Amino acid sequence: MFSTVNDFIHYLPAYRVYLWQLLKESYDDKIIYVELRFTTFELYDRLGQVYTDEHFLTVILEVVSSFKNQYPDFLGVKLIYAINRRLETNEVRNRVEILKKFHLAYPNIMIGFDLVGQEDKGKPLIDFIEIFKEVPDTIKFFFHAGETNWYGTSTDLNLFDAILLNTTRIGHGYALMKHPTLWKAVKERNIAVEVCPISNQVLHLVWDLRNHPGAFYFSQNIPVVICNDDPGFWGAKGLSYDYYYAIMSLASNQGGLKTLKQLVWNSISYSTLNKTEKELANGTLKRQWDLFLDGILNEHLKEDKTKQEN
Fold first, then answer.
1. C-alpha neighbours within 13 Å on the C-beta side of residue 88
2. Are 84 and 122 in contact (CB under 8 A)?
3. Are 53 and 98 spatial neighbours (Cβ–Cβ below 8 Å)?
4. Which residue among 114, 204, 214, 252 has the highest number of C-beta atoms inside a 10 angstrom radius?
5. How far is CA 125 from the centre of its chain?
């Protein structure tokens, strides 16, 4: 499904609009900061000129800068370089070299690395161990691992390697529940699991979200952040849909607003923002949260007044 829009997205003016729309939909959904997985590809303009990977990053930075100028309360974007796990080893090594150049030029923006693509059809993490050794310590790992409902497969075992490689967060981590030693290690090391409820349901890992392992993670106080995964393909915008299903299906019936608030604050706590940036983000979140609560209370007051008048 991704290849359907490739030619369109590779057109430079279209890519700028595409990226702006991504940021705008996030901002409209009250998202104040984004850690975005991205990959580089050739961009071309109306004259047929093809642009390099370095120019690709420049385009992203220009669009983000322009967006922040128009919406100054948006805190910005940090980037996780995503490489398809189906690529040959030499190509992955070449992409890692690109990542290292990006990180050297923009160390506070180009912050991480991941292997993406369907785990079951790609190479496991262990196949790239020698390449991972070449990644500087200042670049964090954000590995997809365990996005499967199979037990004992290479995808399942990616969880072991992700933790051993000191991943900062685990993408999906759907199979983590089956490994008590691993989920206890995740909890002890404070590694957050990026839970994507709607994606897991759409891709048939689970039919009834009440059976999603995220409910177990909640019950065991395993660090969780709610994320989306290719939301445009099912017409979703922002994160509200995934948050809704997390609260309605994964959280305890007694969870309520306190669970919602914890999940929102987790997004900042388990981000790569530094201490000063987190303080700024938490201040912005608190103001937005207070406005959110005021809106709920005012709505209930209006309903009560209407009932009394009737």
1. 2
2. yes
3. yes
4. 214
5. 19
Rounded Cα distance, 170 and 183, in Å = 11
The residues assigned a catalytic role are 147, 172
- The contacts of residue 128 (CB under 8 Å, 6+ apart) are 89, 92, 115
Query: How is residue 125 annotated by DSSP?
Result: G
- Whole-model pTM: value is 0.94
Fold of the 75-309 domain: TIM Barrel (3.20.20)
Domain boundaries of the chain, sorted by first residue: 75-309
121, 122, 143: which is closest to 132 by C-alpha? 143
Check if the beta carbon of residue 218 is closer than 8 Å to that of residue 199.
no
At 33, is the secondary structure helix, strand, or coil?
Answer: strand
Q: In this structure, what DSSP letter does residue 248 have?
A: I
